[in-house]
Amino acid sequence: MITVTSAQLSAWLALFIFPFTRILALIASSPILGNRQIPVRIKVSLALMLTVIIAPTLATQPNVDPASAPGFIVLLQQILAGLAIGFTMRLIFIAIEMSGELIGLQMGLGFASFYDPLNASFTPVVAQFIGLIAALAFLSMDGHLYMLAALADSFQTFPISSAKPSATALHTMAAWGGSIFTHALQLSMPVIGALLITNLALAILTRSAPQLNIFQIGFPITLAIGFATLLLSLHYLAPMLDQLTHTSLSAASHVLQQLSKP
User: Least enclosed by CB within 10 Å: which of 21, 76, 135, 202?
Assistant: First the structure.
């Protein structure tokens, strides 16, 4: 007769619940996979499938009961690790959407916005368009697979243990979050530069020919040049997105390394 003690059952449960918590936290906070339109049961099913694949490859985990106070602390550490990877990846799309907002404001389309059910807020049209293009490009370049590979490597960089994580990783995440303004400006710089030249040309035209109605001809010209420059700059969106993806994965790995330091 096979008998299973409560200690053995807790140990088996710990082998599954700790990696499952990290994986589910990543899926919930990551771009594309964490989309609100994806049903929760699909996210949980994906997390279960990944846990079944990854859990047998992990090293020996600490013998901690998940229902105890130390086990609760380990669960919080796994949530923090998963959120760290997902947050660093989500910042890429925040930077891209911010560049779309800057472009929309310069083109005079700051008032044109639609309700975004994903973020429960109003998003400018240009930002929503660039965000959709970036999401499709992210999937086409296997960015979601890179993210899952980083998740599997995170168990080696920041293994499951009861050690206290370092607080310096939070500063690294904040610094990476501040860089979204730089990346947003880099993405929107071609359109902003073209519209700046256009506005200067219209200002000179207004001074040389005051009888022209600059408000009547300026807005269509600004829109036409803005859309033309945006169309030409979309060709360079994929290389920039690929660079941001690898930079974000490096930042996530650096954060996890700092978390593992005492």
Answer: 76
Report whether pLDDT(17) > 80.
yes
Residue 126 tokens read as 């240009």
Rounded-to-integer distance, Cα 131 and Cα 35, Å: 13
Q: Tell me which DSSP letter residue 235 carries.
A: G
β-bridge partners, 114: 123
Residue 202 CA to residue 208 CA, distance in Å, equals 10
pTM exceeds 0.85, yes or no: no
Confidence of residue 143 (pLDDT cuts 50, 70, 90): confident
**CA distances for 50 relative to 20, 95, 151, 185, angstroms:** 8, 29, 10, 36
Give exposure, 110-133, as e/b (b: 16+ Cβ within 10 Å). eeebeebeeeeeebbbbbbbbbeb
Question: What is the DSSP annotation of 152-204?
Answer: HHHHHHS-S-SSPPPTHHHHHHHHHHHTHHHHHHHHHHHHHHHHHHHHHHHHH
Q: What DSSP element (H or E) covers 116?
A: strand 113-116
pLDDT tens by residue, 148-190? 888 888 888 877 776 666 667 677 777 777 777 788 888 888 8
Report which residue type is found at 59.
A
